[in-house]
């Protein structure tokens, strides 16, 4: 099971937080801070696993993270997940973001956190890995976005009419 | 209305959207909080508007703010509003917000049930998908209960996108509503073989997650998973399955044997590191489970270690880390194979990555030997010096102590070296582990008598240099060491070179800055030292010196008398008075030293940590009984105990010291000696072993220089542990040279003389003798200590709690009136297999419940016998018709497997347990021992296990079957009692799903489709077991079921019942094969050989065996002739007997109850591939639901839908033919319209149905 997925930047600013277990807002922030503290002090060329902090999990939980440019992608998982598998999953996640946002950068995540959530929802559901095939993920995300667009188009004529009237 | 919408849209144009909010926050870095609070006010305004678009926008912004740590629970109701929007765009926003901030105590959640249900059944798959995703995050027990059925229906949705989400969310539903696990499990299992890989992967995911918590309940799925493992190419799925097997193997060693080969192949073939790593991990788990009493799998171990070495040597830090992690698992069972890679692991200690260093440290623990301990610790000491950061250094410190002290100091050859290591460790800055070092010092000094001289000298030096330890405020933790030092110096003061100096050191004013408990020890031990000093001084007849010492005490002790610490104060004032009295005596020239030292005479022995617990409670003593009347629990009395304690303690403790006179002490000492002589655990020190330590520098020359430095310095005068490494090396060389001359005999003597067991070290280690012949005093235990089995149990074990979490539904199920309990029941078989080990490991609580179960089974067995008698009558009719159909049996196979387009997955069957056994017993390595054990456990005399290939142990099945029947009958009872409609509805739903299992004692109500509530009278019990043959000795009844694992196999279960007064043994079951049907015989036996029935029958006992037949064509019924031969053994004689029988394979027996849902059913009928046929039954005089139940039960159909007096039914053959029935009734006429893709099969099935009813 995946307990939490966090994305924050090099300064510890959260860009996405998805907890698959309930915590109060304060605890969530504390977890993000603690995780950032743990992860950020590690060198670039050390391993991507570390034993979880005090707040999240216990001995059974691990933090598995990857660092891309200005962002840290951190997954907190228990022992039922394969460590290397999760690393691959992070890679898939980032590549999917890259496809969906066309050359993703931190700004995309800052302004479109809802979209990131939607993409993530196609990969991980309730703490369990749902889909690992990037093409499948993108197909579903695109189909939903198309639906959203078609709904926007439905409302447009009204607006247009209104603009014409004035 | 239109204008309102337009107005809303216009408003929206002026609103901030999420992007504006983010931008705004970025532009207000200085007053972010203020800006956000104004934004929240705006959002509150927006939420008040009617326009859903505005609301959705506001909720979207709230979701962002929630991430920044703002509580948005106040908007929960608005979130629900947005969730219920008909537009996908808004719905998605609503569900996202809900998934981020709803939780179990959000009260508006209960408003969402209907909305979610609506969304789940939405025609738009993305509405459903979004609802499922959201629900997965905030599902509550209530939601889970209310929606479980809806989600279960979605598991067979046409779109794989929905199916996989529905399957995945079931895990969350199970967690919140455990009762749903059993009803949903069959369908979940089906999904393991879903055509869509995503759905399959989701199902694997869920079952793995379930099985991880509760592996034993999922053991029966092993064959299915094995099949998946060998066929799947999806690495994700493979990893999960392999991980699951890792959890299952400890429960079933036979599984492990079967796994090794395919896993090894995977290890060799895969290029994916993640898969390779998991394979290695599981192979390790298998090896661990096999390690007891198995032929060595050294090749596999070598392979694992070798692959791990490659991982560790990889430049990728991740692989290195994982390699070390897996290596530590091997270490536990196969330390030797890891030890050969010591070089690599030591290398990892130098890694720049702390995670890797920590893992390497873990490994070191198991790698030390007598030979390399010093070397490894030396290396660690270097790391301690270099280490930055206290956590890593503390970790190193604890590891050093762990490594050295493991298994009773097994690897330490030179305790002087160890003491010096401990002393060196006291120089660590800022460590928290002072108490750990202290306890080690105490332990070694107390238990290793030979080291006391040296230890005391070292401790005296430590005390002398106490300022180095206490000088720096940062070093608070380490001053604990002084506690140990003071106690050792006091207790073993006779070994001190210069007790006077140490006494002075202990009475320095600076001591008063130490923590109270340490001061107390100082004071007490100063008194002990005082006694020693007096003794030496009086001996020298320098009375002035003795008086000076007393004066010193009298001068210094008042400092402690003023201490704020009660303990210190008390001890100090006691001792001060004592010394004053002694001084008085001294002034009168009375010799006091002897009497003073008598105060502290006697030796303190180490006591085992659990000794107190193990003292048995004497008979007649009730520890819980009140001695006095219980105090009234008024608040005012709360404080009294404290006051009493404070006042009275001095009174109690004062006489304690003085009362003990010399005689009493001598008596006690004598008694203790006597006791020690009788105590086998107490190993006495042999005086000869006490060598005087010479290498160390003289302690008396240590200059007392008061240098107060904040920087930790090496404690002057203390020997460095390093020098021991050299010395040890020399010593060993010398010894080796000596040893060459000596003979083996001598070595033996030495070994026995050591008084300590060295059981685990390799042979070469035995050559290394300790520098000191050391006796390690074993800790004392009370006489007749209680046995220690219950030592290791931790009632707070988190896994136990987890176990309850998921186990509950399955354990409770014993009460539940459903038969699908099987899945949970399955794990019983391995334990009943006579797997004594696992049984012994189980907790007593479980044991007792198992015993109960077994008792119950016995009862049921009796009951079953009487039942069978009834059944026999019922099924006689089937026998009569046999000959009519028998002739067609050998027809060539018309039907091939190609017709099975829709590969509907098999559901669970009653044969699960035996399936597992079949499957396992086909393992390449035969497990004769276990099966023999089975037989021995179940029956009195063992039978040669020739037939292990086919039916190794069918015994566990039989009681289970009977249990089924019992549960069924109890179901009927319950049914009558419960009037509540809702309850019934639920139950029926459950039954509907369970019904998909084949059952031996079916119930009738199952035939009611989801939701139809009707109060129907219970059915009489039914059985598919029909009489096979009977004579005066034995009766055989049988049932035939299709094998789910293989489309060409049927399983014939035969119950043998001994009817006579004699013992029946050497039963052999043989069948004359036809072209179409063949009895499966173990490899190597001829086509006409019989199969040995794997049990014997004492008088009046019945037992069941299973035989597998391979069939080619299933469209025709057929009969096989067979013979059972057996020996009837009386007290005086034994005769060979035989019984002929005809085994009737009806077409019905090739059908497998398979659930089908109305949508799929409709599609099937629409497809037009099926050919029709129909039959009319006249004069059927039974309720419609009974009729349906009979068809379901006897002919393995399931009801798809039932409307009034009309029902559609479905079944599937083992070769994948679909059989659909439409059953209508009017009056006493029943018409059955049927469709099937194989007309011959259909015709035969209909004939058989007709026969069934013509008998009623």
From TrEMBL, chain A:
Per the record, membrane topology reads: Peripheral membrane protein
**What's the chief localization of this chain?**
membrane
Q: Which InterPro entries match?
A: AP_complex_ssu (IPR016635), AP_mu_sigma_su (IPR022775), APS3 (IPR027155), Clathrin_sm-chain_CS (IPR000804), Longin-like_dom_sf (IPR011012)
GO cellular component, alphabetical, reads: AP-3 adaptor complex; cytoplasmic vesicle membrane; Golgi apparatus
Q: Does the keyword Transferase apply?
A: no
Name one process (GO BP) from the record.
intracellular protein transport
Protein's cellular compartments = Cytoplasmic vesicle membrane; Golgi apparatus
The alphabetical list of record keywords is:
Cytoplasmic vesicle, Golgi apparatus, Membrane, Protein transport, Transport
Q: Does the keyword Glycoprotein apply?
A: no
The record ties this protein, via Pfam families, to: Clat_adaptor_s (PF01217)
Superkingdom of the source? Eukaryota
Positions of the AP complex mu/sigma subunit domain: 1-147
Membrane-crossing residue ranges in chain numbering: none
Q: What function does this protein fulfil? A: Part of the AP-3 complex, an adaptor-related complex which is not clathrin-associated. The complex is associated with the Golgi region as well as more peripheral structures. It facilitates the budding of vesicles from the Golgi membrane and may be directly involved in trafficking to lysosomes. In concert with the BLOC-1 complex, AP-3 is required to target cargos into vesicles assembled at cell bodies for delivery into neurites and nerve terminals.
Q: Name the family.
A: Belongs to the adaptor complexes small subunit family.
Q: Tell me the protein's name.
A: AP complex subunit sigma
Organism encoding this protein = Xyrichtys novacula
Automatic annotation (TrEMBL), chain B:
Where is this chain primarily localised? cytoplasm
AP-3 complex subunit delta domain: which residues? 660-807
Q: Which ranges does the record mark as transmembrane? A: none
User: Which SUPFAM superfamilies does this UniProt record tie to the protein?
Assistant: ARM repeat (SSF48371)
Membrane-related topology note: Peripheral membrane protein
Q: Where are the stretches annotated Disordered?
A: 623-695, 714-1019
Where is the protein localized?
A: Cytoplasm; Golgi apparatus membrane
Superkingdom, natural source: Eukaryota
Comp. bias (Basic and acidic residues): 639-675, 725-740, 795-825, 857-869, 957-969
Q: InterPro entries given for it?
A: AP3_complex_dsu, AP3D_dom_metazoa, ARM-like, ARM-type_fold, Clathrin/coatomer_adapt-like_N, Mu_AP3
Family to which the UniProt record says this protein belongs: Belongs to the adaptor complexes large subunit family.
Q: What does this protein do?
A: Part of the AP-3 complex, an adaptor-related complex which is not clathrin-associated. The complex is associated with the Golgi region as well as more peripheral structures. It facilitates the budding of vesicles from the Golgi membrane and may be directly involved in trafficking to lysosomes. Involved in process of CD8+ T-cell and NK cell degranulation. In concert with the BLOC-1 complex, AP-3 is required to target cargos into vesicles assembled at cell bodies for delivery into neurites and nerve terminals.
PANTHER family, alphabetized = AP-3 COMPLEX SUBUNIT DELTA-1 (PTHR22781:SF12), DELTA ADAPTIN-RELATED (PTHR22781)
This chain's protein is named AP-3 complex subunit delta-1
Species this chain originates from: Xyrichtys novacula
